[in-house]
């Protein structure tokens, strides 16, 4: 995510829906959010909880930040209406058969005016992965669809969100997954896959200028993920009851 487009303020209540191993939840915690890391996988959540504890011991989160894990189903989020200031749903909707119902739950628990950041695999890199390997997308819990950005935006607009823009990410990662699909997704001993994985780890840790520039150029073409930002519109003003006195705001609106 681009935190200039998706700013997180100290004390913001943020849901990481489908948090997986917790990468986004950890960064949100570092930025001072009150984070809820939500997932169906109990083993993943146990690892996230341990990392939250390690971060506290290391003094990484600022004072006022909080973090907790919650296990549950994306189709029935265990939170009240209008509860979160922001929501992240990263690489999760492509796993859910009833994605529209999950989108409706995201709308329900987000506050009016709140922001949603969604990432899904980009259409072209994902289509190549599906063509190279059946195992890539038929494993239990795997991807059940390939989104175009237009489809993703249309579904979330139909749910009630406003689209605020998009960008692509992880242009260097797409070739790694093509290699994995070509040699076998579970084949971790392939020397080419191992070498490329080492390159990605080196890039993530060192962030050299050359690879940063290369990824920036590759992102619009073969970025592994597309990131789309949405807002839940504020509620419209309540209709005036006939015969009731107008409020100051209604009088101003009528005058306009």
Automatic annotation (TrEMBL):
Residues 237-249 have a biased composition (Low complexity). This is SAM-dependent methyltransferase. The keyword rRNA-binding does not apply. Residues 235-256 are annotated as: Disordered. One of its GO terms (biological process) is methylation. It comes from the Bacteria. Residues 15-117 form the Methyltransferase type domain. InterPro entries: Methyltransf_11, SAM-dependent_MTases_sf. Pfam families: Methyltransf_11. One of its GO terms (molecular function) is S-adenosylmethionine-dependent methyltransferase activity. The keyword Methyltransferase applies. Keywords: Methyltransferase, Transferase. It comes from Actinomadura craniellae.
